[in-house]
Amino acid sequence: MSFSLRLPQEFASQWKVKIRDRERLEPPHVTLIRAERSWRLNLRTGEFMDAFPGPQDVPEPLKRWVFMNWQVLCRAWDGAYPENKVFPTEEPHE
Amino acid sequence: MNEPLVIVEEKRSLRLLVPAGSTVSAGSPRELREALRRTGEGAVWVARAATLARWMSEVESGPKPRHRLLLLGKARAPERAFLRAFFKEVVAPDGELRMLPLPALMRVLSAEARGSLLVGAAVARLPRSVVLYRGNLDTLVVPFSWFSPRPGGPRPDFTDVEVIDHGQTLRLGAYEAATDALLYEFDPAWRRDARRRALSEDTSFGASLRRLRLQKGVRREDFGAVSARTLARIERGEVARPHAHTLGLIARRLGVEASVLGTF
Question: Which residues contact B48 (CB under 8 A, 6 or more apart)?
């Protein structure tokens, strides 16, 4: 089953925050969905990935809720896509 | 720019489901004639088969050949055959094709990005595939094998197929696939557009570095002590904290200060 972040009541009827069983893999992200629009949030950088629709259209309290649950989201992604974890452990040593 | 959406209906209830001004609406044969005049080479139409066939007969005219039609409700065979003669594509719900609920359907059809959203899905047994209908009424055929389960995740159930999240997710039982993942893989034109958008919009450090490198005309293989693989991982954002020494080498090769690498 796809991962769906539990949301406060004020957002639960109109918004979904999901990591589905089949996503575009690069980069790891979570998708905020409202009706026919969606916002992809990069789990590595915490930045919105697309200019349209604008990140300013996401209510600040919802953004705060998502960031409060960041570790939960990263664990959900890593569990679903272990071959493309949010932060691979390997680092360069040139 | 989207082709226009044309709604043909007697009761004018569908137009209440879409944003004002986003459609051409025909509530009578006279308005249908006007809609035919106003729409150009291509348009997406939504109508009930009986109404549209009757009114087209009355005005003795039909759309240009590139127009596509989505029928609401069941259509009788003669009406469907009549309409097929005029439209490039006629999509009609039947026992196999499952459409979005009407309010969501109308929102998707009137959306600017309707080609990036799904409106319906059906399962074809031979070959074993899922046929997806997009908001612009293009189809996409995806083999069952593409829907691979994740570790510990559900298996796709092809007997329970539904488009949800206003066309942004395909549900197969408990299994869910993102529409953009489907389009990215099976529509090369959509993929090209998505890549172009992503590269121009991505404000991450890695994307900035990539833009700078390309602007300077430097290949990933040209960074000496920094391997092409490492550079690719930094550009993709896979390295959380690149070493200062590594960044210094990259900056020197690109002829800039390390502190400005993320500003391009």
Answer: B8, B9, B71, B72, B73
3-state SS assignment for residue B92: coil
Task: Count how many pairs of residues, chain A against chain B, have C-beta atoms within 8 Å.
Answer: 118
- Using a CB-CB cut-off of 8 Å, the residues of chain A touching B242 are 91-92
Domains of chain B, each with CATH number or no CATH: 1-92 (3.40.50.2300), 95-195 (3.30.2020), 202-263 (1.10.260.40)
Q: CA of B106: which chain A residue's CA is closest?
A: A36
B158 touches chain A (CB under 8 A): no
Q: Is B199 helix (H, G, I), strand (E, B) or coil?
A: helix
Interface predicted TM-score of the whole assembly (ipTM), two decimals: 0.93
pTM of the model: 0.80
| Residue A48 lies in domain | 3-84
Contact between B201 and A35 using a beta-carbon 8 Å cutoff: no
Question: From B231, which residue of chain A is nearest by alpha-carbon distance?
Answer: A92
Which chain A residues contact residue B169 at CB under 8 A?
Answer: 2, 18, 20, 33
d(CA A17, CA B61): 47
Closest residue in A to B226 (Cα–Cα): A94
Instruction: Name the minimum distance, in Å, from the CA of A35 to any CA of chain B.
Output: 5
Taking an 8 Å cut-off on Cβ atoms, the answer to whether B147 and A22 are in contact is yes
Residue A75 within a domain: yes
How many domains is chain A partitioned into structurally?
1
pLDDT in tens, chain B (264 residues): 678 899 999 887 888 888 877 788 899 999 999 999 888 888 999 999 999 999 999 998 888 888 999 999 888 999 999 999 999 999 988 778 999 999 999 999 999 899 999 999 999 988 899 999 999 999 999 999 999 998 889 999 999 999 999 999 999 999 999 999 999 999 999 988 887 877 776 778 888 898 788 777 788 999 999 999 999 999 888 887 889 999 999 999 999 999 989 888
| Neighbour order of strands in the sheet with B23-26 | B23-26, B5-8, B44-47, B68-71, B89-91
Instruction: Return d(Cα B5, Cα B23) in angstroms, integer.
Output: 5
A50 lies in a domain? Answer: yes
